[in-house]
Specification:
- This protein is of the alpha/beta class.
- The protein is about 55% helix and about 10% strand.
């Protein structure tokens, strides 16, 4: 009896869509879900008439697959992944390949890789971006682990990934947890992007009093500029959706943002590696402070201010300035993300190709954007580029728009609209371009109260001063 080419565990929407994607691209698939009812429903509806085999136990799943077995695990990150792996291990044979397609913490991926290698098994930690639609029609895939395991999967993943002008949106990322680390940073950049867009929306809606139609028109127009991206496109769409009473649905949504942890993990890793990512930190902080809804409502009645929240200057100029500020801030957000990837690659020996990572983000994923081509080209010109800000194209772009960027941040402060990510991005730009920062005073203070010593600019060595007589 012929066997299936691929196995999948976990039939939530992402799992179902990936299963259908694999089957549609010519690879017979076997599926398993802990709930039999879920499997039966999938087989009777979306998988009906397709080359999908339902299995109702892990031994049955294993028996249905050709060797080496290739099994994608699509369950909730954390303990559920370990539970599935522990059940599978006694059933598998050497060279079988397990793939974790969830948003697992990279430390967990390293641990699982080591444990499975001891058992003679291969493990791939694969970031999957694109949401439900991407999973079905072509996501961006970020697989890390043994290169031999990737090579065995390559005929499948290159077919199911999103396809762009220069190839499929998948590549071998690197050993161990490289794939999940890159997906984590992708999500950190996503946090930054979303917060920056939210701030632009606030400036236009609150500052200029724009209604839904004008917001839709503005973001649609921006999507034909250097800001062209999936997130700008869906933002324009959101403003067209009306509630039952005919008012914009977005205005009925509670202003408390959720998060699943990848943004926080990115921030924690950046601190561990000593890489500044202030835009992403601002984005995570903004989501946290949004959760204090009750406190904010109470504070709004007490912390009154002379600021009006309304911009009184020339309207069209301000709209264009917000667009330019958004683009400059976006450059800084990506510059921080790529710098973090470069440092992680060095410290964890991932061997990341940053230009290729930018390429596979061009399609399928949430942060897909036209200017990723420019990032790919920047690292193509100079693979050791220390920061996107010093690439000739991005230097020119940001200096051209710098005045508008400062105008927006100043205006926001004057009228009382918080723009933490815009401000953090501008601070990053100003700090990175400064030859001398005031941390000489910080070092003097540290030496004063803790004898931590300091270095000098005019001679080598470590110095300590008795600051009091």
């Amino acid at each position: 009896m012929s066997k299936q080419s691929f196995g999948l565990i976990g039939l939530a929407v992402m799992g179902e869509n990936l299963a259908l994607n694999v089957e549609r691209n010519g690879f017979p698939i076997a599926v398993y879900n802990r709930s039999r009812e879920k499997t039966d429903t999938f087989m009777a509806t979306r998988a009906s008439g397709k080359n999908v085999k339902a299995t109702y136990s892990l031994p049955e799943l294993i028996e249905s697959l050709e060797r080496p077995r290739k099994i994608l695990i699509m369950v909730k990150a954390g303990d559920p992944v370990d539970a599935v792996i522990n059940e599978l291990k006694p059933l598998l044979e050497p060279e079988d390949i397990l793939i974790d397609g969830g948003n697992s913490l990279f430390y967990d991926t390293d641990r699982r890789t080591a444990e499975l290698e001891k058992a003679g098994l291969q493990f791939i930690g694969m970031g999957v971006s694109g949401g439900e639609e991407g999973a079905l029609n072509g996501p961006s895939l970020m697989p890390g682990g043994q290169r031999s395991a990737y090579q065995a999967l390559e005929p499948i993943v290159t077919k199911i990934a999103a396809q762009v002008d220069d190839g499929p949106c998948v590549t071998y990322i690197g050993p161990g947890s490289a794939g999940h680390y890159v997906k984590m940073v992708h999500n950190g950049i996503e946090y930054g992007d979303m917060q920056l867009i939210a701030e632009a929306y606030d400036l236009l809606k609150t500052g200029l009093g724009m209604g839904a139609q004008e917001l839709h028109d503005t973001f649609s127009a921006w999507n034909d500029t250097e800001l062209a991206s999936f997130l700008i496109e869906i933002t324009a769409d959101i403003f067209t959706k009306m509630d039952e009473d005919g008012t914009p649905l977005v205005e009925k949504i509670l202003d408390k943002a959720g998060q699943k942890g990848t943004g926080k993990w990115t921030v924690e890793s950046a601190f561990d590696l000593g890489v500044p990512i202030p835009t992403m930190i601002a984005a995570v902080t903004a989501r946290v402070i949004s959760s204090y809804k009750t406190d904010r409502v109470a504070a709004s009645k007490v912390l009154t201010s002379y600021t009006t929240g309304k911009y009184e200057g020339e309207r069209t100029e301000f709209i264009n300035a917000v667009r330019d500020a958004l683009y400059c801030s976006k450059i800084c957000s990506y510059a921080q993300g790529m710098a973090l990837l470069a440092k992680a690659s060095q410290e964890m020996m991932y061997g990341l190709n940053l230009g290729e990572i930018a390429r596979i983000w061009k399609g399928g994923c949430i942060i897909r954007a036209g200017f990723l081509n420019l990032i790919k080209d920047a690292f193509g010109r100079r693979p050791d580029l220390p920061n996107l800000l010093v690439d000739e194209h991005f230097t020119r772009s940001i200096l051209t728009k710098e005045k508008a960027w400062r105008t927006v941040v100043m205006a926001a402060a004057q009228i009382g609209i918080p723009v933490p990510a815009f401000s953090a991005s501008l601070d990053y730009f100003d700090s990175y371009r400064r030859e001398r920062l005031p941390q000489n005073l910080t070092q003097a203070q540290r030496d004063y109260f803790g004898a931590h010593t300091y270095e000098r600019i005019d001679r080598e060595g470590s110095f300590h001063t008795e600051w009091t007589k």
